Fold this sequence. Notes:
The complex is a heterodimer. Chain A has helices spanning 10-59, 166-216, 232-275, 280-305, 319-333, 355-372, 407-414, 427-440, and strands at 60-62, 68-70, 88-94, 97-100, 122-130, 136-150, 153-164, 317-318, 340-345, 350-351, 376-384, 393-400, 444-449, 456-462. Chain A is α+β, with helices and mostly antiparallel strands. Chain A folds into three domains: 40-171; 232-305; 317-462, Heat Shock Protein 90 (2-Layer Sandwich), CATH 3.30.565.10. In chain A, the strands form four sheets. Chain A has a five-stranded antiparallel β-sheet with strand order 4-3-7-6-5. In chain A, strands 9-11-12-14-13 form a five-stranded mixed β-sheet. In chain A, strands 1-2 form a two-stranded antiparallel ribbon. The mean pLDDT of chain B is 86. Chain B has eight helices and twelve strands. Chain B has two domains: 2-119, Response regulator (Rossmann fold, 3-Layer(aba) Sandwich), CATH 3.40.50; 126-220, Arc Repressor Mutant, subunit A, CATH 1.10.10. The A-B interface holds A 291, 295, 299, 302-303, 306, 325-326, 328-329, 332-333, 335-338, 355-356, 359-360, 362-364, 425-426 and B 82-85, 87-88, 91-92, 96-100, 102-104, 107, 114, 117-118, 122-123.
Amino acid sequence: MTSMRRALSLHARQLIAASLGLIAFLGLTGVALDQAFRSTLVDTMEMRMARYADVFWNELEFDRKGRLIVKDIDNLPDARFNNYRSGLYAQIQTAKGDWQSESVALFSLPELQDAGKVRTPELSGPLQLPVGEDSSIGAYRYTATAEFETRKGPVVATLRIYESEQEIFRQVAGFRRSLWAYLGIAGALLTLVQVFILRWSLQPLRGLEHELSALQEGRVQRLGRQYPTELHPIANSINALLDSERGNLELSRNTLADLAHSLKTPLAVLQSQLENHADPERFREEVYSQIQRMNDIVSYQLSRAARSGHALYSAPIGILPHAESIVSSLEKIYKSKGVLCEFEIDPKSQFSGEMGDLQELLGNFLENAFKWAKQRVLLTARPLFQPAAKRPGLYLCIEDDGDGIAPEDISKILQRGVRGDERVQGHGIGMAIVQDIIQSYGGELSVDRSSELGGARFTITLPSLS
Amino acid sequence: MRILLVEDEAPLRETLAARLKREGFAVDTASDGEEALFHGREVPFDIAVIDLGLPKLSGMDVVKGLRDAGQKFPILILTARSSWQDKVEGLKYGADDYLVKPFHVEELLARINALLRRAAGWSKPSLECGPVKLDLAAQKVSINDEPAELTSYEYKVLEYLMLHAGDLVSKADLTEHIYQQDFDRDSNVLEVFVGRLRKKLDPDGSLKPIETVRGRGYRFAIPRNE
Lengths: 466, 226
């Protein structure tokens, strides 16, 4: 099968959808972890800075003149304070003098405004810190203040520690490398698992496909596997369709074979008569009767061939419109007889099958009734409901006020192919046709005397479909 | 009785036409739908027998065309299709009866006679007016149950007059329906037939079955029995 644009396979659809979900999930996870890690780093930095500040406050002294002295610069909390441009800079400002760590050396840190103010410790940044003439670095700034008692009164010292972002960048980059590596591995693993799950869950479909192609190649006759709940109805429907198709094929084969075989007998009779030089008058009669026989055979088989014989997928047909059109035809043909046909049709009654079959049923029985009736014909139809049935069955009853059928003739009429009345054309074959139809729907036909009209009563019941 | 026979199968058409002529019909034949519609619109037929499967124009269209043109004569359709769907369809379009092929010629004749009777308002198989009884199927006439010996032309005249018993039948009408297209139409011949009929039906002159309406035509004067 080739179509102009083939629809995307179920496999591809699921894979694409799940992969997009996975990418979004892993991406968001990565970004969130990254953010969390960064803020942890900054928190850690703040704690470290606070510890540094404590050390600085311990090392801080004021001499007799009240000047600022940092006692032992080798005892600073981090060696980087003493290394030139190490990225870690400290600055202390008081009213009595300033101090800068060795690492600052050739450039100067920005002057602090209103140095005497007492502040709560805070970490801010990243901000731009000028280092030298025309270059600057991104850095965090920690600011804290402490009050010292000197002989000349209290002095407020403000400590500022700058730390370059480089360290954070480095750590973040390292974290990211391993984070994305792990996420990548997880993603790949999940995709693999997903592919496996997909194959596993689509396996029944693949099985169905295989069975169908096996069916096409004629290796199997019907779908035999156990399918999951979702596919079960499909497999069942396909099987039902197959059975009915096979039934149809069988039916038309049989019809054709029956037709061919049953025509051979009258042909053989004619041939033998022709070769026996029979008396011309008798030969004439024989030709007549064999022609009649062949005609019956052809009509009967034609009507069988026209039927599909199953009600599985046909839409239900209302009885009333068909009954009306047939009765108006019959009223035309039997105009001079003046037969009155009454309906007692339940509007809910419907025929689940081929329209042609319904027309044959109604047509043959009603014509029969019109033929034998004196004045009245009654057509009754009602649905036969049964619990749990998908479609109701049908009860049809055709009565007339004619002479009726003698009990001993009833079985003869019900015998296929026996003609109840030789005078009227097509009578016997019509009976055979309707019996065939009723049988193909699994229905039943009974003949008795009408209690209401006194003539013949034909009752047809077609079972409901479940 | 003038009949239009439409059938494309030549052997069947010729056999049927010959048989109908032997039965005393004036037969016009057509072998396709267009020809049939043309004849049917022009000629006042008493009945038409039309096959459904015709070349050029289908039998169903011919029936529709005739009814649309206002023709009211009965139409019997012949069909090879025996399903009820086809029957219902044919009758819906204005046919009055159908016959499924193959059929016995006797069956066809019986149906034709029934349709003719019905069209003229008779419901029983024989036409009865007073003591005169005409059996359409057997083509026999009797008076007080005594068979009357009529020639085929006398029978035809009587049949037409009795079918339309009570109605005025013009000489032209009578000629139209009794003779075929190419027959010599001499109204004197008709008068001779009517004269002989009167003698045979009413030897003592008491019954007066056929009335002459001067300058206009004839009327079968005995009232219908039904």
